[in-house]
Fold:
Amino acid sequence: MASHLSRGALRAALSASRPRSLRCTRAASNAASSSNDDKDPQLAGYPELPWVSNQSLPPRGWWDQQMRRNFGDPVHEYDEVLSMWGPDIPHVPPRQALFQFSLAVSAFVAFGLACKYALLPERPTVPREYPYSGLVRELGGLEENKARELTDEDD
Structure:
C-alpha cells in the first residue's frame, strides 16, 4: 500500500513538472539562451529560439496540428528549414548511414569481382601463337608500323 501511494505521488510530481504546451518549453529555452553574451545583433530583441525541427515535436496537443504550433508562438528565424515542410530529419545518424552505404558499395564491388575472377570459366582453347615474335618481321618490323607524324608539308 505504501508503494502505491509513493507511485501516485511520483506521478503527480512528474505531471506537475511537465510543461503543458510548447510555449512553456520555448520560453524556458529562451531564458536559458538569452543569458549568452553572443547575441545576434540583427534580431534586435526578437527571441532567439532553439534549433529544433517541428518534425521532432509530438504530433498532438497543438492549436495548429499540421504545423505543430500554438497560436501566438514566435516564428523561428529559419522557419522554412525547421517547419514541417522543411528537409526531413534523418532517422539514422549520418555516421551510421555512411557506414551502411560503404558496406553496400563494398558488397556490390565484391560481387562484381567475384563474377569477373572467381566465376569466370577457363578458356576452352589455347590462345593463338604466331611465329617470329608475333609476325613482327612479316609485317615489316616495329619501325615500319609506327604512326606517321604530321608535319606542315603533309597538309
Q: What stands out?
A: The longest helix spans residues 94-118.
